[in-house]
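User: Could you write out the 3D structure of this protein bound to pyridoxal-5'-phosphate? I've included everything you need below.
Assistant: Certainly. Input first, then the structure.
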Amino acid sequence: ITTPLASLRTGAPETAAAPETFDTRELQRLDSAHYLHPFTDHAALRARGARVIVRGDGIYLWDSEGKRIIDGMAGLWCVNVGYGRASIADAVHAQLLQLPFYNSFFNTTNVPALRLAALLAELSPGAAFQHVFFTGSGSEANDTVLRMVRRYWQLAGQPQRDILIGRRNGYHGSTVAAASLGGMAGMHAQGGLPIPGIHHIGQPSYAEGGRGMSEAAFGLAAAGWLEDKILELGPERVAAFIGEPVQGAGGVIIPPATYWPEIRRICDKYGILLVSDEVICGFGRLGRWFGCELMGFQPDLIAFAKGVTSGYVPLGGVLVGARVAQLLAEQGGEFQHGFTYSGHPAACAAALENIRILRAEGLVERVAQETGPYLKACFAALATHPLVGHAETCGLAAALTLVRGKGAGVHDCAPFAPQQAVGMLCRKHMFENGIIMRAVGERMIVAPPLSITTAQIDEMAERIRACLDLTLDEVT
Ligand code: PLP
């Protein structure tokens, strides 16, 4: 059953003439001697040596050995326009020469930052977010959300409303506040988190919690957990609820269509602010500029990062709707919060050019009309593989769940024992055979650049199937 990988059709040469040659062993030695990587087991890294990525073009990366890899994850869900966009580099270069840095504290501003703020206001859902606060990352955006929400309720004369509710297996970043808002048990265990004033409810995973229910009924039930939590804590103490429209790092958890409108209804019932963390879903990933537009709800605040610059330069921020802006920006006096790099001119210049590309090439619409449906069809075909229990896609985010035994529905498959680490085994085969997928337990994830073509989706799917075969050979 194993397809020889060498026979797979490719859209670009397997190896490219390297513009520079690299001494991989020496780079790996320096790396493991000095570089502490994020979310990495360094003993395992030392044993294997890090793969050194040296170049990118479109959806492809090359490592220091000259090997070509399909980047099925768009970096970390961020390189939306793909690699190698000279016009973004040119925009940043020009801005660095013109004005590399100036802050936005103390009644000053800069041209790219104010232009970007105006553009984001125009692009925001219903053009209803007329203000933006810039940060350097998604984590800082969510720290800003926490500070902003609490400041809002102070200004509203209800300072006792200081509790934020997030979800188990949600991800909102790695700073103390962002990791607390997130619901990653491993992160909480290592940091004495969450900090006080943050609570969590379950995630709307139909596969995990919907046995015996229709998807629609499960969506309403999962939203009902928020109401239960609000009543348990006391509605007068709850400030905000935060969630990702589709959970990314948690494993592409796509909620039923009934979920988010019901969440909005519950928040409205108790006057609670609703925050959409669009760090992954924003800027086209789900085939809309913002994921909340697909999921059918209007939040009060939107956290963003990643796709706003396609990761070329770090930038994040919070889009602020009228309810919060009215108190915070118009009546609130000084909001004692900000970062040296809030509104960094070079980052904002990168974002302006990135958004110009997204619009000029119609990439967001392409995800909705062409590449998203095509990926869905390819993943549905992969779900016939003996190792795959089910496939789920939303725009250009997709997951395959690996199972020991297939069943008629998502609740009828026999799972692998976690200690078999089949997801990690599959990821290793992918990595060795020129495609990057992420493994979240037994869920194999892709979220490629939005610039991917249908031919490249075919190429990606063929390679995934071949690596599923290799994994199957090893586990049976
Ligand atoms: N929010 C979500 C939904 C994310 O996926 C991430 C990162 O993956 C973050 C926040 C944190 O962003 P950053 O890593 O830029 O701090």
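The CA atoms of residues 163 and 215 lie 30 Å apart.
User: Perfect, thank you.
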